[in-house]
């Protein structure tokens, strides 16, 4: 993950949107989560706090001695906790994925290993958690200055996705939005401008994605693009530009051209708008909680809540109202 430590205290942020996500899980049974390599204070504490909130039942996968040493440093008793002892982070990733494949776990959660290590185990052709979809990441952004939760994709996994990959990225985000019971999303395909310009490839791909939605290759959402960021989220900016669209000014999912653009957008919202960024990976057999070491407690809880809500939605084939 690439979300850095923020220069302001967590308690200064309003979490009302995240509180709604977490509250939506209260009537649901906690799901078993394989936590890969929870070998630092932040990742172990995050998993145990999610367990304490009845979001998950964790299986801690990693070097047992290191996990216990961290728990002792935190003065946390792991008595009765399910710990699977493996020698190192790579083995932890592979074992956590195996627990999901064999049905012992329904959610996968990143601990203190690198995201690449975990995703390498997830995407292995024979032993991973592949589906017919491209793996992609969604930031679920709680922006205090914006009335709605914003979904940003993909700012963490796919570096420079082509049109086929972007189709899956968009569909994954739409399915997440719908699975959380939020309805039919308005999806903005972002670029630097809102007109087609062959010199800017992302404008061509945005138009193609919108036509793919018209032809049923992307379903469940209302797409428009290319749109610049301002006229995607600001009704006034869309009005000034003369853009007449149900999406322009009201976008709920923001699809970025590439990882660099998405990373910059998410960090700008984090640092300049005091936003929080819960994160989840989609396109695998189960939701994957991909947290950052810099995430605060509420962001980690929100990431778990999103994964639990989506997993329950898939089990019941019904959206869970968030």
What attributes does this structure have?
Isopropylmalate Dehydrogenase; alpha/beta; disordered N terminus; 322 residues; globular
Task: Kindly describe this structure.
With 322 residues, the protein is α/β, with parallel strands linked by helices. The protein has a single domain (10-185, 252-316), classed as 3-Layer(aba) Sandwich (Isopropylmalate Dehydrogenase), CATH 3.40.718.10. It has 11 helices and 11 strands. Strands 3-2-1-4-11-10-5-6-9-7-8 form an 11-stranded mixed β-sheet, sandwiched between helices. The radius of gyration is 19 Å and the shape is globular. Mean pLDDT is 91; it is low at 1-12.
Give the end-to-end Cα distance, rounded to a whole number of Å: 25 Å
Structural class: alpha/beta
Number of helical elements = 11
Shape, per Cα inertia axes? globular
**What is the CATH C level class, in words?**
Alpha Beta
CATH superfamily heading: Isopropylmalate Dehydrogenase
The count of β-strands is: 11
Summed over residues and divided by their number, the pLDDT gives a mean of 91
**Helical proportion?**
25-40%
Assembly of the depicted chains:
single chain
């Amino acid at each position: 993950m690439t979300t850095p430590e923020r220069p302001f205290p967590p308690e200064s942020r309003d979490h009302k949107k995240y509180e709604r996500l977490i509250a939506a899980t209260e009537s649901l049974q906690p799901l078993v989560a394989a936590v890969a390599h929870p070998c630092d204070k932040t990742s172990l504490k995050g998993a145990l706090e999610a367990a304490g909130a009845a979001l998950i039942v964790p299986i801690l996968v990693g070097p047992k001695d290191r996990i216990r040493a961290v728990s002792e440093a935190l003065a946390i008793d792991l008595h009765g906790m399910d710990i699977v002892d493996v020698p190192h982070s790579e083995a932890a990733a592979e074992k956590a994925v195996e627990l999901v494949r064999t049905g012992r776990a329904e959610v996968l959660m990143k601990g203190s290993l690198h995201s690449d290590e975990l995703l390498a185990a997830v995407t292995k052709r024979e032993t991973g958690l592949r589906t017919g979809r491209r793996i992609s990441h969604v930031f679920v952004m709680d922006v205090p200055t914006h009335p709605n939760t914003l979904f940003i994709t993909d700012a963490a996994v796919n570096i420079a996705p082509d049109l086929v990959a972007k189709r899956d990225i968009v569909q994954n985000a739409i399915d997440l939005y719908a699975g959380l019971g939020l309805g039919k999303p308005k999806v903005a395909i972002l670029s630097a401008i809102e007109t087609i310009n062959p010199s800017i490839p992302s404008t061509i791909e945005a138009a193609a994605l919108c036509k793919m939605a018209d032809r049923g290759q992307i379903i469940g959402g209302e797409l428009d693009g290319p749109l610049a960021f301002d006229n995607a989220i600001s009704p006034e900016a869309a009005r000034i530009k003369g853009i007449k669209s149900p999406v322009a000014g009201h976008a709920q999912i923001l699809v970025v051209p590439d990882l660099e653009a998405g990373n910059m957008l998410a960090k700008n919202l984090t640092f300049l708008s005091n936003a929080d960024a819960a994160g989840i990976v989609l396109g695998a057999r189960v939701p994957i909680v991909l947290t950052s070491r810099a995430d605060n407690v509420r962001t980690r809880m929100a990431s778990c809540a999103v994964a639990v809500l989506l997993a329950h939605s898939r089990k019941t084939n019904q959206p869970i109202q968030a």
